[in-house]
Structures
1.
Amino acid sequence: METLIDTVAWVHIVQGRILCGRPAGKDVFFIPGGKREGDETDLQTLVREIEEELTVRLRPETVRHVGTYEAPAQVPPNGVTVRMSCYTAEYEGTLTPSSEIAETAWFTAADRALVPPVDQLLFDELVGRELLS
């Protein structure tokens, strides 16, 4: 039986580099965001997760869908698929990693191998759109 992990992510690009974060206790970087709780909408999940991870408030009226991607989870067991709905948005505040995030980094296309398979699909699309260096 296949399992689907449903996530949302914030695509924040500055000067051809995308913001990524490494959660505490993990050795891989991800696009900021996370899993839906209960019956949250994508917007509610996105705003909550980014505030929890990066201590900034996304401006809901500026949220725009970038794309939705699906790929096998990075770590087996087999049969686990990650769906990541990606959005851009403006924010208020100062980007500061919370205790959930060990570090942040600004990645280019050259860093593609450092993110999970579903994030790599986003990287590929952003490169194709000439948004990622």
2.
Amino acid sequence: MPRSDTRRPAGRVAVVTDSTACLPAQLAEKLGVTVVQLQVRIGDRVDDEARVPLAELGEAMRDQLDVATAPPDPGAFFWSYADLATSGVRAIVSLHVSTALSRTAEAAREAAAQARVPVHVVDTRTCGMSLGYAVVAAATAAAVGADVDRVLAAARRSADRSSELIYVDTLEYLRRGGRIGAAAALLGSALSMKPLLTVADGRIAPLEKVLGGERALRKMIDIAVRRAGGGQVDIAVEHFGAPERARSVLDQLRSRLPDVRRFLVTQVSSAVGAHLGPGAVGVTVSPV
């Protein structure tokens, strides 16, 4: 079920997102953000991804069980928007994963057409904590009374400026889900090459191929430092069943980046993990 804070002050702008934002539950609750869950299927079982533990998902993937994801039903968005309208908000900003990766924004738009208050659905053309930090920017603006145009501008600015760097042990899971081509999967596995990926034009795209996992992670850290530049940034490290690897990446980034407003370590959502596979680590660089 979606999470929402029904204690929102009447009249303000509410923020909704989907679970691919990878926002820690406590942060979403603190910000008063409603999170609508994507669906994960393991074999014949289909459930909200929040009810599919990553450990269970990882075991299923290693056992080569049939795993898939699906966008939320439009009804989940409809009832979330209805609850917010009943609480007295005057408008809703609904921020979602790239439509090149999921039909989630389409489901949100279908529900928005029936909502009792204006709903502004945004395809952020990204995913993970690049989406998550756009949600944080929007919710922070809404909390201080910004109107809907300013909330939208804050979200779009954050999403447009953020970059997503992704390390995966194998491209096989992305290939199975149709998120990256078979040729790239073959290149990624040749000669122990480990792929680094990014999100470009709303899609998962190859960035670099590096010999060996540790070298690939060091290369990802180097790229993240370059992308951060000399300005203030928010940094997130996301992982799928690789807490020690994520902590090592975070520690190295902490030592090399002098002006970070916010550091965050979080697990990927199960819907994201179903495409990246166990062992994946991502870094989000979000200029302030």
3.
Amino acid sequence: MMNNKSLILIKQFCLYNEIENTFIKELHNYGLVEIVVEENEEYLQPEQLPAIEKMIRMHYDLKINFEGIDAIYHLLNKIEILQQHLTSTQNKLRIYEEHKTL
């Protein structure tokens, strides 16, 4: 059982952001967010909030449907992973070049 003090009640989150509760359920159906159920209440984990807020803007401001959000979210994750690999490779190359000049 998680410490639900750190969890965000979905009902409150939706009220605060002026969105429908079904929006979070739909994101969950696409596997984009995890819903934690405790004592018949549904919660979000705080670390998911930045991604959810981006998805809210995509859907409500840019009128992107859930299929589009799903595709964009996965592409952005792939880009982030590629950037991490690129940084790691650049660091290895820098170390190699520093040793080569010694």
4.
Amino acid sequence: MSYSTKATTSGGRNGRAVLDNGGLALAMALPKEIGGNGEGHNPEQLFALGWSACFGQAILVLAKKHGLDGQAAKVTCDVTLNINDGAFSLAAELKVALPGADKAKLQALIEDAHTICPYSKATKGNVPVKLTAV
């Protein structure tokens, strides 16, 4: 089984992004921190949303294996856009909170989830990622 989706953007970071099925259309804008007006969304926000949801699913799939109930897990994905001498790069931190969970078990679950999450696989070796149990 596989799944595919498509989005089209015009105007770059100050344009409009639309899913092919019309289910979502967003105004895009440079963040204020890098000279934009911030009156829209940016690729880093969308990446953080997607990665946190995808990673949350990996947590759900693997939680029982680690003796945890992943239903109450909350995943936060912090994405940073670094700009150094005109070169751009990303960094990320995935933080997982699971009330009542043993921190060592939760950390092991997070590290395991990082091996199966498609976003984690896609960024492996390209984006520095910190994995944190909170």
